[in-house]
């Protein structure tokens, strides 16, 4: 394994076509928008998709979705307790700093998402809590223009239970609403900090695995809200600096990505947009299409 020596920045451009990329449970599960009407996908949702992709590729993941879990454990605590040495450290009282470092090292070595994104270990019944800062940071995805949201009423007209009064008659229909973004182009950014990577053991090979996961972000992610093919990664931009601090700040690197509409009519395809990246002296950019 190769230690990560230099800072890395990345950007991802993706499209949403008649899908709900990230519903807001406090707003009837409507697609998230900011107060100006721009669409949003939370960083938590993006990390969830990355965890799923990495798990599909055989990586050990601590924070697993219950419906996608690849082991017999039904909770994060059960998964942590299955690592006997880590369990012993977390249940020690008056733990020393060395114990915390050992627990952090064990957790990071065991699970990819811990050494990438970090994790807080604070469970009922444990006497030591630790917080691990991961080197991979990801921004909220934001659409390049305000998005239009369509809503439709749906009806479930099948019997969930038998009509007790008259088994020959169906029960009352159940009404509901379904929301979607008609079309939108979204961009999100991220960085990998080599100083934090040293602490968690996040390697250059781990970074390459992350890059591949970004290309296939929506593979195996289909649902009724996001039909297969309705969300697509269009471009992944990847910058590898030549120092730990980086040739430029992440903000300056991220500002080099431009996604602009090339026609004034209502866009319905990524072909209606031009994606460009400004050159930064001494910092080449890798450009990849989504897979």
UniProtKB/TrEMBL annotation:
GO BP annotations listed: maintenance of CRISPR repeat elements
InterPro entries: Cas7_Csh2/Csh2, CRISPR-assoc_prot_Cas7/Csd2
Pfam families, per database record: Cas_Cas7
NCBIfam families: cas_Csd2, cas_CT1132
Name by which UniProt lists this protein: Type I-C CRISPR-associated protein Cas7/Csd2
Species the sequence originates in: Oceanobacillus indicireducens
């Amino acid at each position: 394994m190769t230690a990560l020596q230099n800072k890395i920045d990345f950007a991802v451009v993706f499209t949403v076509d008649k899908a709900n990329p990230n519903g807001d449970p406090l707003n009837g599960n409507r697609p998230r928008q900011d107060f100006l009407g721009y669409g949003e996908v939370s960083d938590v949702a993006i990390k969830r998709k990355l965890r799923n992709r990495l798990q599909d590729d055989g990586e050990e993941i601590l924070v697993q979705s219950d419906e996608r879990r690849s082991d017999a454990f039904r909770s994060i605590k059960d998964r942590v307790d299955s690592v006997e040495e880590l369990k012993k450290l977390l249940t020690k009282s008056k733990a020393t700093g060395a114990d915390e470092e050992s627990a952090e090292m064990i957790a990071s070595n065991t699970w990819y998402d811990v050494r990438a994104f970090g994790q807080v270990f604070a469970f009922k019944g444990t006497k030591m809590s630790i917080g691990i800062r991961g080197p991979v940071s990801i921004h909220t995805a934001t659409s390049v223009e305000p998005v239009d949201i369509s809503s439709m009423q749906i009806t479930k007209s099948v019997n969930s239970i038998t009509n007790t009064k008259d088994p020959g008659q169906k029960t009352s229909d159940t009404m509901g609403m379904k929301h979607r973004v008609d079309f939108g182009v979204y961009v999100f950014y991220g960085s990998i900090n080599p100083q934090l990577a040293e602490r968690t053991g996040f390697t250059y090979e781990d970074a390459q695995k992350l890059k591949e996961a970004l290309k296939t972000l929506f593979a195996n992610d289909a649902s009724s809200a996001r039909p297969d093919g309705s969300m697509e990664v269009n471009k992944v931009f990847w910058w590898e600096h030549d120092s730990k601090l980086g040739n430029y700040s992440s903000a300056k690197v991220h500002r080099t990505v431009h996604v602009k509409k090339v026609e004034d009519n209502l866009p319905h395809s990524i072909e209606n947009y031009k994606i460009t990246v400004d050159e930064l002296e001494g910092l080449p950019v890798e450009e990849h299409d989504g897979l």
